[in-house]
Amino acid sequence: MGNAFETVVREEDNDRLGQTDENSILRFLTCGSVDDGKSTLIGRLLYDAKLILDDQLMTLERESRERGSTKGEIDFALLVDGLEAEREQGITIDIAYRFFATARRKFIVADAPGHEEYTRNMVTGASTANLAVVLVDSRQGIVSQTRRHCYVAALLGIRKIVLAVNKMDLVGYDQLVFEKIIADFKMMAINLGFSSFQPIPLSARYGDNVTRSSQNTRWYDGPHLLEYLETVAIEREEEQKPFRFPVQYVSRPNSDFRGFSGQIASGSIAVGDRVTIVKSGRTSTIKEIVTYDGSLARAGVGQAVTLLLEDHLDVSRGNMLASSQDPPSFSDQFQAHIVWFDATPMMPGRSYVLQTETDSVSATVTALKYQVDVNSFAHIAAKALHMNEVGVCNISTRSPIAFDAYAENRATGSFILIDRFTNNTIGAGTIDYGLKRSENVRWQKLDVDRAARAALMHQKPTVIWFTGLSGSGKSTVANSLEKLLHAKGHHTYLLDGDNVRHGLSRDLGFTDEDRVENIRRAAEVARLMADAGLIVLVCFISPFASERRLARDLMMAGEFIEVFIDTPLDECMRRDPKGLYAKAIAGQIPNFTGISSPYEPPENPELHLKTINAHADDLAMEILVALDRR
Amino acid sequence: MHRHSSNASHAVSYLDRLESEAIHIFREVAATSSKSVILYSIGKDSSVLVHLAMKAFYPAKPPFPLLHVDTTWKFKEMLAFRDDFARSSGMELLVHVNQEGVEGHISPFNHGSQIHTHVWKTIGLRQALDKFGFDIAFGGARRDEEKSRAKERIFSFRDGDHSWDPKNQRPEMWKIYNTRVSPGESIRVFPLSNWTELDVWQYILREDIAVVPLYFARLRPVIERDGMLIMVDDERMPILSEDKVEDRMVRFRTLGCYPLTAAIDSDAATVEQIVAEIRRSVTSERKGRLIDKDDAGAMEKKKREGYF
Questions:
Q1: Which A residues, 70 through 129, put their C-beta within 8 Å of a C-beta on chain B?
Q2: Mind listing the pLDDT tens digit for each residue in A236-295?
Q3: So what's the ipTM on this one?
Q4: Structural domains of chain A in order of their starting residue, each with its CATH number
Q5: How far is residue B202's CA from residue B200's CA, in Å, rounded to a whole number?
Q6: Which pLDDT band, with edges at 50, 70 and 90, does A6 fall under?
Q7: CA of B176: which chain A residue's CA is closest?
Q8: Which domains does chain B carry?
């Protein structure tokens, strides 16, 4: 095995890429801390395997000279550090993908940067990898970044680890150093659930045990790195799992053809098999498996096909076809691990878009159970998740989704979170399990429904949501409006921020997290009152656009009226009816909206009312006119 | 129709995996975007891209048009191929030419490759995307082509100015693609991200996909300049007194504007021979691309400005 090198050289007419086993492809991730030499290792691997082409090598030699590398040595890091900023700073910023092949196998390498702030890139690389090569510097041993990388790899479902103990040349190829690092690693990784572990002593700089066994480590009788990567068994367990087919696209070229397109996430399917349509619980039989290259009798995991069913059933994107014997979970409540990417922290109660491979729903984190310290693996109590932090959360979605536990199925157990306003991907999640609660708490079907109650009151239930700075005049205008409505015989209720804080929200403070929860409670109460048939006036500063969005999403279409009471901050401070601004400026009230906490003005409120030179009764009349016009 | 449909086993080969991944990407865009387009550059990668799109939506046609941003300096054989190819695919072909380039008589000989590429390709592409209001555009770029490409996401977000911010890319996990954009923003999508040059040719061989004849070796009139073989494709090519036009057996490994794309000496006249040649090759594909060499980080800079 020691001369595997000979099988990969690109000499004469050796069929460098031609003899590859068709099915053998290994996707692996390399990770390690900043100076462990990841890029150097990949460069060395490609160079020694003679996979760097002549013009690339010439460019590399020239750039190595320009960057002042020592004594004409090639700086392999330059081969993979593709971005200008990376070359200038001598660090790797983003995940890079490399492709190479030997006679035995094809490889896709994701090179993940070591810096803490780029954890999100490592998550990106790890999500599709089967194996991780974790680098450590033999002089440093296991450091906190090693722990973090191993944790993230384990979290993303990587079960095979190569521990590459690099820079062995700098410790005199000392076996004891190597053994000590292995022992430390095993202690650290004991609960991470890795199924295979291969430590290799190497020097990326000099090529020891990279593509050939080193004479400097005669005490080591294991495989060199390339040999290991070429021969490690890749389990194809996805094939044995129950059939899962997330419906991606409904193909209807004409009225006779209604096909469901998607990529088989696990298991296999044959014509005549029974399948369950997860969201409706209906079952049908596979009539045809359509592809451009002709219809198939059978298709398996990974294949992108179009399925026709025997029965005309309602199936759209986001639904799932699955094995009837072993269906997935279908629930709107589950526990998940979340990795947070965004500068704005994740807060329980806030509404996000949750996207699985093909489904997309509105979701909130109902509880942040704990944060995981990715360096010590300790569980820490937390009220919010900040950038690059990992937490265990309960999640509630607006409608149920089809899923499996991530440990069972990476394709159907994963999701991302998207910010509604910026459209950025702000988090990633792996589902632990469905919460039984949602299966037991069913909506009570009642005979007297909201329409019946509203009809008895002769009114359309409505939530009128007043937002604006403290002292802007929300309560004054709302009070005036309620009098007008009352006089017209309407049934109303006014929910005032201060009053709610005396009771329902008396346990909450004024941090961002508590404000979010306060709004969530008010919105839920308003929804129940609207359900009872009332016209509800809600007067809350409600400074964040996302919570106002949450409130809007809770109500029926057309029953939510957002009213922006727009008074400039200096005018509010001049009025200061409760003397709060004076205290806030004096530093006696922390987190005061407009002073030490932000206010996000609504972009598209139903009504935008400016209070300067206006009378509260006139503004109330304006709202009434708008209500009547609907 | 093709040889692997008779395959009784459902084992998935390496090329099948790449194919399925690309099909999944095409369908994802069709399911989530109403205004998308395939950037069609006439090269082999574009041929493969269109073939994959046909597979993704069979028995329907792909729900996108093709868009060619013409620089007026393409090889004549490319344009002839383009029109035939579009006709036989049954897909709509849109062609955009930057009028500023026409009026300014922008040419690689007089203005240099940087200005030429910026005006015809970068600005031309931005104009075309803005004109038609496309929010998602497919391209045939691959990560193995160039170092900054290796760091680009499959779904690559562009701001209102079409520019790429390499340090602030959306995380891209599993097969979950975030296709949401605000008005004015757009996404470039690269279904061939994980393909290599060899994969592309092996796939062309397996699927019997038509490509421009310039890829195949033939006697062609060329001038050798700075070690590069430039083909004399039309009368606009200035021939200096020291230039020697000679007929040589050459082919093109990559195709762009003829004055900026060097030929290679080759006898590979069939797809099989090209596959064999690439397996033996000791140089990279983009070696013949003059625009990549303007300075270090050239490609990254172009991409930040909105180049594909």
A1: 79-85, 87, 93-99, 106, 108, 120-121, 123-124, 127-128
A2: 778 889 999 999 999 998 888 999 999 999 999 999 999 999 998 889 999 999 999 999
A3: 0.86
A4: 4-235 (3.40.50.300), 238-323 (2.40.30.10), 329-437 (2.40.30.10), 452-629 (3.40.50.300)
A5: 6
A6: very low
A7: A357
A8: 6-203+297-304 (3.40.50.620), 213-293 (no CATH)
